[in-house]
Amino acid sequence: MIVLGYWNLRGYAQPIRLLLEYLQVEYKDKLYHENGEEWFNTDKQELKTNFPNLPYLIDGDVVVTESIVIPIYLAKKFKKYELIGQNNDGSFNQNEIIFLEILSILKDLRDTLNSSARVPSFKQEKDKIFNEKFNVTFEKIKKQLGENKFLLGNLSYIDFYFYEVLKIFKFFYPNLSIFTDYIDRIENIPQIKNYLETKENKIFLLDRMKSLYYY
């Protein structure tokens, strides 16, 4: 069985969980608690890779780390090449470049929100911050989406990543009404809908973030 290791929170592992659920792959969540003792003192030392990090994925003898690399491994393993922008046979497609570009942009967007929300003045200035730091990126993504259902036309991993980014933004900006149809579209994918109803809300509530940020 595949093992996905990460902290006991959503974080960078959540889009990977959505991908695993979409692929209907049996997997185990290995969750590390906040003090990190088990990770730092034991598992990190024993992980069979030169680059131990969280999240990690163990698939038999294969160990994959880094949140950008894990979904690429999974898409190739299960021959779902379209999930990383390639053609159905795994050959090159220009969408493969766009996939990596958008993934990098979304990670920057998420990291910027994460760092901004840890500053005490964020709660009072968050609307200004949104207009100055985030709105231009959302406009670019809106242009990329256009009239399509998904960011590359067909469903790909970046749709799961963008969905999670949007959920985090909705946590900090509850009145934000952007990409609502897109969110509904992701949440109504049968595998994702089942996950949201049976697993996510029992373990990975966004409300657990309240103690870490000025929201």
CATH architecture title of the largest domain: Up-down Bundle
Tally of separate domains:
2
Read across the widest sheet, the strand sequence of neighbours is: 2-1-3-4
Supply Rg: 17 Å
Shape: globular
Number of helices in the DSSP assignment: 8
EC number: 2.5.1.18
Family: Belongs to the GST superfamily. Mu family.
Protein name: glutathione transferase
Domain GST N-terminal: 1-82
Summarize the structure.
The chain is of the alpha+beta class. Helices cover 53% and strands 9% of the residues.
Q: Could you describe the 3D structure shown?
A:
β3 and β4 (62-65) form a beta hairpin. The protein starts with a strand and ends in a 12-residue tail after the last helix. Strands 2-1-3-4 form a four-stranded mixed sheet, sandwiched between helices. The chain has helices at residues 14-23, 37-46, 69-77, 94-116, 122-145, 157-172, 180-187, 190-203; strands at residues 2-7, 27-32, 56-59, 62-65. 53% of the residues lie in helices and 9% in strands. It folds into two domains: 2-81, Glutathione S-transferase Yfyf (Class Pi), Chain A, domain 2, CATH 1.20.1050.130; 94-189, Glutathione S-transferase Yfyf (Class Pi), Chain A, domain 2 (Up-down Bundle). The chain is built from eight helices and four strands. It has 215 residues and is an alpha+beta fold.
Secondary structure elements and pairings:
Blueprint: E1 2-7, H1 14-23, E2 27-32, H2 37-46, E3 56-59, E4 62-65, H3 69-77, H4 94-116, H5 122-145, H6 157-172, H7 180-187, H8 190-203
Helix pairs in contact: 1-6, 1-8, 4-5, 4-6
